[in-house]
Amino acid sequence: MTHTLHRNGTRENLSDDFVFLYMPAFGINSKGSGPKIRKFLEIMLRHNPVNLGDGFRASMLQRDIQDVLDNIREDGTVVNVVFDNEDAAVQALKEVKEADLGLSLVISGLFDRVTQCCQDTGIHRHAATYSLGVWGKTEKLPPENILEITTMCGHGMVAAGLVYSLAEDVKAGRKSAEEAAKIMAKQCPCGIFNPTRAAKLLAVLAEAK
């Protein structure tokens, strides 16, 4: 179970969204795992992620990346990395496999695309988790085109009102979709928000307003 699992969207707009979640098993192999996690992030940075973060510290869009790397907890933490294309995700996964750091990696994305990434790197996945959607009074939720953006922050730190406001800014020409997407991404300290996907969704939303 992970907070990266419940991303709303269509097959088309989720096709370039790959989230890596890397962590030790706390109390089992977490002691002294900080250097391994830092090494993992250094590997990821070689493949041009669009976001990256330490859930206890900040994301690369909130702080300088060196600050994030230098403050990884000695006994481990949960870190997240986002890629906006499959090739980068595959190349990063290959290098992590070769490094064999010994910690757990979860990849979120379209099921068949993630499976293909594993096959391309000679990895046999041992488990898969599906989102069954949201149950209850769903009529109280924002519209789907807003949820496609807000659910990219699994802790709900990107408010629907902010999305509406930034869509107005984009429509009026006060901000580009890319600038607005980075503002939203900065609200998500875990670093799982995909600003590339957000910019595309926001541009469509602004056009429709």
Can you lay out the helices and strands and say which pair or pack?
Layout: E1 18-23, H1 34-45, E2 51-54, E3 58-59, H2 65-70, E4 79-83, H3 86-99, E5 104-108, H4 111-120, H5 144-150, H6 160-172, H7 177-185, H8 195-208
Antiparallel strand pairs: 1-4, 1-5, 2-3, 2-4
Helix share of residues? 40-55%
Sheet with most strands: strand arrangement = 3-2-4-1-5
Mean pLDDT: 94
Helix/strand structural class: alpha+beta
Count structural domains: 2
The percent range for strand residues is 5-15%
Helices, by number, come to: 8
CATH architecture of the largest domain: 2-Layer Sandwich
Low-confidence parts, pLDDT < 50 over ≥5 residues? none
Largest sheet, described in full? 5 strands, antiparallel
Q: What Rg, in angstroms, do the CA atoms define? A: 17 Å
For the termini, the CA-CA separation is 35 Å
The number of E-state strands comes to 5
CATH level-1 class of the largest domain: Alpha Beta
What does this structure look like?
The chain is α+β, with helices and mostly antiparallel strands and 209 residues long. It has 2 domains: 18-120, Alpha-Beta Plaits, CATH 3.30.70; 138-208, no CATH class. It is built from 8 helices and 5 strands. The chain has helices at residues 34-45, 65-70, 86-99, 111-120, 144-150, 160-172, 177-185, 195-208, and strands at 18-23, 51-54, 58-59, 79-83, 104-108. A 5-stranded antiparallel β-sheet has the order 3-2-4-1-5. Strand 2 (51-54) and strand 3 (58-59) form a beta hairpin. The longest helix is centred in the middle third of the chain and has 14 residues, at 86-99. The protein is globular, with a radius of gyration of 17 Å. The termini are far apart. The model has no long low-confidence stretch (mean pLDDT 94).
